[in-house]
Structure formats: C-alpha cells, structure tokens
Amino acid sequence: MALFLAAVATVPMISQAAASESAQRKASFTAAEVKLLNSETPKTVTLDPATGALLAVEKGISGVEPSISKQNICQTGNACWYTTRVPYANFGFYGSAGTYSASMPYRGDYHTGSYRASACWTYTGPACSQTLPPNTYVTLGVTVTGTSFTIH
User: Fold this and answer.
1) pLDDT tens, residue by residue, 91-127
2) Range list of H helices, the chain
3) What does the alpha-carbon distance between residue 23 and residue 25 come to, in Å, rounded to a whole number?
4) Residue 12 — very low, low, confident or very high, per pLDDT cuts 50/70/90?
5) Residue from 91, 89, 88 nearest 113 by CA
6) d(Cα 84, Cα 100) in Å, to the nearest integer?
7) d(CA 150, CA 104)
C-alpha cells in the first residue's frame, strides 16, 4: 500500500524497504528495475488491482493522455478516416504526436492530411500501415474495424 501511495503521489524516491518488499513479491525484478524504481527517472509502474502488488516497472510515462484529438468531422488539414456506413461519422484527427485507440467500426479509406500518420485495424486479423507522409490518400478497398490512429 505504501508503494501504491508513493507511486500515485509521485514521491521522488521510493524507500529501499518498499522497493525490496515489492521486489520480493515479483521475484523476477532485475537490479536495473529496482534501480529504476528507486530513481527520479520518469517511470510507469503496473500494480495488481486485486492486491496492490507491484508487477512491472518501465522507463517513461505511458499513462499520459496523447496529444492527438479526434472529432466526428474532417476539417482542412485533419487526418481523416472515412466511414463506409451511414450513420457512422468520418473521424478527423488533429493535434500533436500521439495515438488514439478505440474500436472504430466501418472504416474505409483514410487521408493523412497535414500529418505523418499511420493506422491500425482488424480485417482477417490485426494489421497496421507504415508511417506515411502528409497528404497521402490510403485506399484499403474493404471495410475494416479501426483499432488506432497515430500522428507521428
């Protein structure tokens, strides 16, 4: 519990006792992971929601909301993922680098707009495009379920 409160409150240092206790809960912690856990380096920890036990620690802040935004209209300059079925809306993506992840049914072709962008979807299985430059029109030729759209 002390570790959870420290992580949430973003206390700069987690005590050695707490780190050691957590490391014992997850025997596979490496020395590098324990060092990261005790450092002031930005990190993300994963906790077991049932017990509060520390499951993982990774460098970087992965829980930060992306800077990408989505709207149900495509405006000039937006990256746009077009719908293939009424009443579903086209999705306009804008902002700065980030990934918008959600189930986006009935997606067809897309346009990168003013951005370097990529998209992921499911069709016969999961698939993603490579990062494509601005002003690129992408045709898939079928209806897919979008899973994410990324501005790079």
Assistant:
1) 999 999 999 999 999 999 999 999 999 999 999 999 9
2) 2-8, 16-25, 31-38
3) 5
4) very low
5) 91
6) 20
7) 14
Residue 80 token pair = 């746009």
- Span 21-73, pLDDT tens digits: 443 444 588 999 889 888 888 787 888 788 888 888 887 766 555 589 999 99
Place of tokens 């499911």: 122
Chain Cα centroid distance, residue 52:
23
Strand ranges in the chain using DSSP code E only, listed in sequence order? 43-47, 54-59, 68-71, 79-83, 91-95, 98-111, 117-122, 126-128, 137-138, 144-151
Burial-class residue 61 by CB neighbours within 10 Å (0-12, 13-18, 19+). Answer: exposed
